[in-house]
Amino acid sequence: MTRPGWRWNVLWIALGGLLAACPGGKGKGPDSGGLTDLAVVDQRASDLAAGDLARDLAADDLSPVDLDVSDAAADAAVVDGAGGGPDLTAPDVALSQGPCSGRGGHNCSGTITLYRTPSGALELRFASDFSVSPIPAGEVYLSSRSSLGSSINPGGTSTDVFLGTLQGYTGAQSYTVPAGAEQGRPYAWIWCRQVTVEVGVAQLVPLP
Predict the structure, then answer these.
(1) Which of 115, 124, 145, 172 is spaced 20 to 30 A from 183 at the CA atom?
(2) Could you tell me where the beta strands, DSSP code E, fall in 146-196?
(3) How far apart are CA 14 and CA 8, in angstroms?
(4) pTM score, two decimals?
(5) What is the H or E stretch that residue 122 is in?
(6) Angle, vertex CA 161, rays to CA 157 and CA 165, nearest 5
């Protein structure tokens, strides 16, 4: 926007000329009418400056409040999940599920479910009814194998994907699943690293 400041300089220069041209404008005291002429000229200068400022505002199409209804609607759509992004208020989706059973003489029970969250992340969750025999160095895996035996093949394109250390012997718990790790790996394993034995397993069956 064009700033009106430079116009004030021009106006004050003009003001000096007007004062010089006014009758009694030089060397006159208050009684001669010089102050009256000054007040009139100063009011005219102020009026001119205000008019210039109004024209500048109109030229730049400014208004006291500039609301863009379309932008507000777009913001609301994003919050509601209709703007193309994930709707983080949507419920988690259960992809597959199975009951856990003990292996190698250990006890294991409860439900294990694979979930996809609204953000797209995958989580393997043990339900609150989960229970397993106390073991040292328990670990959780997703695997393509129905039997682990006494060895694990972690890393890269391995059949066994490590999800984390067992968080507890009972109760609800959750493990983050790397993207794509669920593909072709329908077995959720609890394995004891210290004595290299199977402890529990759940075959995850796709849910409708």
Answers:
(1) 172
(2) 160-165, 173-177, 187-192
(3) 10
(4) 0.59
(5) strand 122-126
(6) 155
